[in-house]
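Sanity check

After download, print the first record. It should look like this:
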Amino acid sequence: MKKYFGLQGKAENLEEVNEDGFKTVYVYHTKYIQDLFYIGPMYHLEYPDAIKILLVLDVDLEFKIDLIELWNEHKNMKNSELIGVGPELTRYYRLRAASFIQENPGSSVGQPGKWQGFNTGVVIYNLKNIRESQLFNQLINPEFYKMATTKYFYGGLGDQDLFTLMGWEYSELFYNLPCQYNYQTYRDIDYTQFSLELDVKNDDPEYRNCKNQGKVIHVNGLII
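Expected structure tokens:
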């Protein structure tokens, strides 16, 4: 998975000297080199069969509700829906899939709504459904990774990218977790020339389209 959904290129820090003589160092982060970001598709293989529902949560969350309310969302999932995950509330995946969209005008990929991609800060894994899904288990292989990344884009965010591409190919496998359960704030994002998110705006209403009051607040962005 790291070959297709990990950071590409060599991990080298960048330095530049400003006109005033001060040096600025851009540190190449290694966050998505860690194994943690690639194990989501394998939970059902490691946990005992007695565990049927698994919540996986980022640490940068603020809860306005009892966790049981979030857990109960799995009861709304159809048997064909394996993973409950909310939308990425920026146009990040529209930018990543720009070449595909240009070559396929009229495609829904990357557009606001169901196709804007996932954010895995909050995920409900229905391990029972995953274990029983022949399709899902067939997709967890290098052949699918290569096909999907060649078609859309090479990833850099681990299993979040995999699930987004899988959702574009097989949307029926995913339960669209209501956005209020992963209400992203994107605090202090640094829109620098080194960021792919250069054109992403905090006030982009097309993609920051969660109309409901946040119940699980995802305080993502830079941690200072």
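If your output differs, re-run the checksum step. Summary of this record's structure: The mean pLDDT is 88.
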